[in-house]
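Need tokens for this chain, all 64 residues.
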Amino acid sequence: MPTYRYRCKNCGYDFEKVQSFTDDPLVTCPQCGQKALRKVFSAVPIEFKGSGFYRTDHSSSSHK
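Here are the structure tokens for all 64 residues:
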């Protein structure tokens, strides 16, 4: 199950919650009780492994 990060727009409380894809997003802040929670999205890290990801990995000297 994925871990989602939430931040309250009212008090700034920041936390993570493990939820299923089918679960409704949280809206009420556990810190201040206001309905001001928003999901915080960030870039997903990508790691390239193996050959073929760089121009020099798959081209030969005859193909220029």
